[in-house]
Backbone:
């Protein structure tokens, strides 16, 4: 089989990229070793984070580092045995998170996020996936006035510099919008612009169906078999060898498995995360995507039940699951909302694909013709799938990309 373009990896990034290429008349074969959207894009918190223009930095204050070092928190956890291997990534991540550099990164990152809703809106409409989308923002609830004041001040800043819309809710307001929330919250901050997805896997599948309706083909295959073949690239799939002139690597946390073989040595890491679904007890209802901000976990009222998602676990990508954050979060969550029984047999785990400067790698490979990179979307891969897909497709087909892509080019890392 042959095509114009191979897209390797059928998470939200790969599927979105495949759509944008197919829309531009390319014949596209999308390859994944599993079904589409069954890895990281399966289990996220479902937010299209239009407010998320400041990527999550590594703590800078010594006190905070010491607290994280104790390894007993909900929002972050680490495997001590993995630290030596993680030092190159973590030290660079820490360096890029310094106040001045972090601000510059947020400025460079903003255009991607600014276009997240409009680019999803385009694909959601085309894929007829409106039934999976809510357009009413998400909420952070606070236990202390100090934490709330800090976040409200930041929201006011974001409102001024980037037009981010938010609403401050008093404790009484919060009790009105979330009558079953039982935590002792002093108030909440609602980000008004973001959209949420009630079934992130369902959205990727709807996008896949749209891609196929454009003539695209999805096949199972192993991206690590990718090799140049003189005319372009080839990869081994269940349907035999597939050849194409160009290839996009969109393998999320597994991208390194292929880039390393091709001679690139990006220093990347993963932040693993977990989820579990719960029933609500009795007639309790959770209306909003809600974060218990000071504890650092999320409750999302999804199609399957209330999805609790956890923060960052620093560990070897392939180490066995260790859902201690989920256990800790569940205990606290049960004190703020009447959660019923668990609905999954075991916790789901995914791995956010991270770069040290908190921005994805989007662009042409520096040392290979016909090879393109689209990975490293960290906490915002769902948010940025369609934006990334459009940019890559425009660059590949010779259109002027609708955003200046220089901030996300692979060459910014010596790899
Ligand atoms: C707990 C949690 C909550 C999150 N919440 C949000 C959120 O609310 N909003 C948001 O924007 N983002 C969120 N994220 C991040 C988001 O889920 C990821 O950034 C995004 O899913 C990455 O998409 P991807 O397509 O790059 O990777 P993936 O979805 O992991 O796709 C990579 C694909 O590559 C395939 N693959 C791997 N190796 C091979 C191989 N050798 N051969 C063939 N195929 C291969 C895999 O099977 C997989 O399908 C969250 C992540 C986690 C863990």
Residues:
């Amino acid at each position: 089989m042959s095509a114009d373009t191979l897209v390797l990896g059928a998470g939200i990034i790969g599927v979105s990229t495949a759509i944008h290429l197919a829309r531009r008349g390319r014949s596209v074969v999308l390859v994944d070793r599993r079904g589409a959207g069954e890895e990281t894009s399966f289990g996220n918190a479902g937010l299209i984070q239009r407010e998320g223009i400041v990527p999550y930095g590594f703590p800078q204050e010594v006190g905070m580092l010491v607290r994280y070092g104790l390894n007993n928190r909900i929002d972050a956890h680490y495997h001590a045995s993995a630290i030596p291997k993680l030092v190159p990534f973590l030290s660079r991540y820490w360096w890029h998170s310094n106040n001045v550099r972090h601000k510059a990164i947020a400025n460079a990152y903003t255009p991607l996020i600014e276009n997240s809703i409009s680019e999803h809106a385009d694909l959601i409409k085309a894929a007829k996936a409106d039934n999976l989308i809510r357009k009413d923002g998400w909420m952070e609830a606070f236990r202390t006035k100090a934490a709330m004041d800090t976040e409200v001040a930041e929201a006011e800043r974001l409102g001024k510099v980037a037009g981010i819309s938010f609403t401050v809710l008093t404790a009484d307001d919060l009790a009105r919008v979330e009558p079953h929330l039982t935590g002792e919250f002093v108030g909440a901050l609602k980000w008004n612009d973001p959209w949420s997805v009630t079934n992130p896997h369902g959205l990727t599948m709807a996008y896949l169906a749209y891609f196929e309706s454009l003539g695209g083909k999805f096949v199972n295959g192993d991206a690590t078999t990718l090799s140049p073949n003189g005319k372009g690239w080839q990869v081994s799939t269940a349907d035999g060898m597939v050849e194409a002139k160009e290839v996009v690597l969109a393998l999320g946390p597994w991208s390194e498995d292929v880039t390393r073989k091709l001679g690139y040595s990006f220093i990347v890491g993963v932040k693993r995360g977990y989820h579990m679904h719960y029933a609500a007890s009795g007639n309790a209802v959770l209306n909003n995507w809600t974060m218990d901000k000071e504890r650092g976990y999320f409750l999302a009222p999804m199609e399957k039940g209330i999805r609790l998602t956890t923060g960052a676990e620093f560990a070897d990508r392939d180490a066995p699951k260790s859902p201690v954050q989920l256990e800790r979060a569940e205990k606290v969550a049960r004190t703020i909302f009447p959660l019923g029984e668990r609905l999954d047999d075991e916790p789901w785990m995914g791995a956010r694909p991270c770069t040290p400067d908190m921005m994805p790698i989007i662009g042409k490979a520096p040392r290979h013709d016909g090879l393109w990179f689209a990975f490293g979307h960290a906490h915002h891969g769902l948010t940025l799938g369609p934006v990334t897909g459009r940019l890559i497709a425009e660059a590949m087909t010779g259109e002027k990309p609708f955003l200046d892509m220089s901030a996300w080019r692979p060459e910014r890392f010596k790899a």
User: Anything to note?
Assistant: Residues 27 and 46 are 30 Å apart (CA to CA).
